[in-house]
Amino acid sequence: MLTFIALLALLALFMVFRMPIAFAMGLVGFFGLALQLGWRPAFAVLERAFFDSSSSFILVAIPLFILMAELLTSGDVTRRAIFACQSWIGHVKGGLAMATVAASVILAALVGSSTASTAAMAASAYPEMRNHNYADRLAAAVVSVGGTLAVVVPPSIVLVVYGVLTETSIGKLFIAGIVPGLLTATGLAVVIKFIAMRTDQAPKGDPFDLGKAARASRHIIPMALLMVAVIGAIYGGIASPSEAAALGVMGSLLIILAQRTISFSAFNRSVSGAIRATVMIVTIVTCSAIFANYLVFTRITHSLLEFTSTTELPREAILIFMVLILLVMGMFMDQLAILSLSMPLAFPTAMALGYDPIWFGIVVTKTVEIGLLTPPLGLNAYVASAQTGVPLRTIFKGVVPFLLMEVLVLVLLLCFPQITLWLPSLMLK
């Protein structure tokens, strides 16, 4: 136990000195295995962990979904989706902000990355809101909050990583994220409408023009069809997530080639960006496997499972404790780092308590989504601040009412699991 505590302290030290979380976990896991088993067995476990985790077929979905997002963003498709949403509801008070949330849902279903979605919104939706005299505090907050929808709405990269780490059906996770994602978007729109009615932070936009709205919508019809094809293929059992991801990449290429909105250099940047992001995620997954192997050999996981089976605490109390820990971790770490660190212990514990792995995955994902908005890290707030020039202090103040709504949605998901499990239960086998 003393060795385990010392290695955890070493892991914390690595993180304080800003070592990438993947390398920090891999090194600590390897050193732990070497102390536990010896150097030669540790190298054997290292080799096996790298091979087993990196050769998983389901990992193919990660680069494909990332490439789909990169292609659509480089091809100007995402910006057109934002303007289309704004043309329909931007004329009402607070409408531009609500249109930004609606566009965020569309982007989430195409991009799968919260930071990419936030950056796209900051570049396209924020200037439009400022041109219509929206307050910096609200405009930047909406951009930050809207980007978090990509964590829950499929094809979320976070859900893919959770599925890989816990060996849970990624197809069912994707379908399970639809209702919570739409519920979150509805809650954000309610908060915007409340702020618009009670303050002068969100004035009306331009008068409604049916012709302009119809012309703008032409550009998002192919995107909507692509969304339906990708998610529908998974829901109907026609394709696995990896196959659906390949369908998404092919559809994205056809859209941007038909619309002639991408250059050869932009295409190269898209592929390079997808490769960099994929290498980072796969490295996190493989190093997490090394750390998980160390936990197995120390029997920490076994001891924790024994505790949960013998303790007199109600299982709801243990679940709330885990959620609170994840919320605190979200204040200091990004979502992939949280998953890689916590799932080797949290997932077996939740399964021992009898919770559904699909439902638990959405709860965890929703919890780490909240962490994207909370100081001092608040990654989405940092991205929005860098893109818009709005001070971080102003953005964090602006996201407070939205955070309250996010917590309310999380409580609803905890109290009513059927919100999450209803759609997956209807999936074709």
TrEMBL record:
GO terms for molecular function: transmembrane transporter activity. The chain crosses the membrane at residues 50-69, 138-162, 174-196, 220-238, 244-262, 274-297, 317-341, 402-423. Keywords: Cell inner membrane, Cell membrane, Membrane, Transmembrane, Transmembrane helix, Transport. Residues 8-419 form the TRAP C4-dicarboxylate transport system permease DctM subunit domain. It is a multi-pass membrane protein. It holds the Pfam family DctM. One of its GO terms (cellular component) is plasma membrane. It is found in: Cell inner membrane. Belongs to the TRAP transporter large permease family. Part of the tripartite ATP-independent periplasmic (TRAP) transport system. The complex comprises the extracytoplasmic solute receptor protein and the two transmembrane proteins. This is TRAP transporter large permease protein.
